Amino acid sequence: MTSKQTNGRSAVAASLRRNGVHVRIGEFEGIKLGASRFSLRDPYYAVLTISWPAFIAVAVSFYLLENLCFALAYYAVPDCILNARPGVFMDRFFFSIETLATVGYGVMSPASLYGHIVASTEIITGMMTMAVITGLVFVRFSRPRARLLFSRNVVTCPFEGNRALMVRVVNERHQAIADAAARMTLIRRQITPEGHVMRRFIDLQLERSEAPILGLSWTLIHFIDDRSPIQGMTPRTLADEGSMLMVSVRGYDESISSSVTARQSYAPDAVKFDHQFVNVIDELPTGEIVLDLTHFHDVVPLAEETLP
Fold first, then answer.
1. Tens digits of residue pLDDT in 188-206
2. pLDDT tens across 229-266, in order?
3. Are 31 and 15 in contact (CB under 8 A)?
4. Count of CB atoms within 10 A of residue 278's CB?
C-alpha cells in the first residue's frame, strides 16, 4: 500500500470518527453512521447513560437556564417584585432561585398580580423539576452493578491432560453471588461463499459454566480439543480474523438483593499462549482461605518441559 493510499484511508477513518456515534463494547469501539448522538425521542435513556460529571453539568445548566428564563419574565415588567432594586437584573435572578426552591427570605416578594402569576408558575415548575431530577438521581444510584473483576489476560496452558483456555474472575464484594453462570463467546470475522463479511458469535463450551456460589475466585476453563472452534489457532490467526473473546458472568448478588451481570472482552493480543496464571489462593493452617488480589492479573510463561 502506497503512502497516498495510507493517507487516504487515515482521512476516511478520521471523518468516520467525527461524524459517527461511538459504541464501546468492552475494549473495542465501534462507529455507527446515520445515528444521532442524542435523540429527543428518548431523553430518559440519554440522561441515564451519560457520566456522572456530564449528568451534574446538565442538571446545573438546566437549573440555571430555568431561573434565567423566569428572571427575564420578572425583569420584563418593572415593579412586579417588592423591594427589588429598579433595573437590577440580579435581584430578579436571585428571587427566581429562592422562588424555584420554595425558600423565601422575606426581603423580596411579588408586588402585583403579574408577579404572583409568574411566581406561582415558577413554584409549580420548580416542584416538578425537582421531582424529575430526584427521580433520575435515584435511578442512577439504584441501578444494580456487579463488582466482578476479570483478569486482564486470557491464557492457554495444559490442564488435566489437555490444553485449555482460561479466564479468571473474582467477586470484589464481601457478600457472595449466588447461582453464578458464565458464558464465553468467540467473535470472529468470516467470509461466506457468496463473499459477504459476517461476524460470527461462537459459544465456547466451558468445563463448568455454573457455580452455586461465587465468593472468592472462579477460573473459567475451555478445553481446546478437536471439538473446540479455536483448535489450531495462533496469535497471528486471531489477529488476522479480527477475533474477539467475550466473557460474561451473571448471578444474584446477595448484598444488594438483585441480579447482576458483568462482562469483559479480550483483544487478540490479550490472549497469552503457553502462559499460566500466578497462584493467588492459599490456605492457612487454621483452614481459612486467603485470596491475594495483588497478583490477580499476573501471568508467567510456561516452563519448556511443560509444553506439549
1. 887 777 777 778 888 999 9
2. 888 888 888 888 778 899 999 999 877 778 888 899 99
3. no
4. 13
Share of the chain above pLDDT 70, in %: 85
60, 67, 100, 117 from 92: Cα distances, Å:
19, 9, 12, 15
SS3 track for the chain: CCHHHHHHHHHHHHHHHHHCEEEEECCEEEEECCCCCCCCCCHHHHHHHCCHHHHHHHHHHHHHHHHHHHHHHHHHCCCCEECCCCCCHHHHHHHHHHHHCCCCCCCCEECCHHHHHHHHHHHHHHHHHHHHHHHHHHHHHHCCCCCEEECCCEEEEEECCEEEEEEEEEECCCCCEEEEEEEEEEEEEEECCCCCEEEEEEEECCCCCEEEEECCEEEEEEECCCCCCCCCCCHHHHHHCCCEEEEEEEEEECCCCEEEEEEEEECHHHEEECEEECCCEEECCCCCEEECHHHCCCEEECCHHHCC
At residue 230, what is the residue type? I
C-alpha cell at 9: 484511508
Grid cell of 290 as nine digits: 486467603
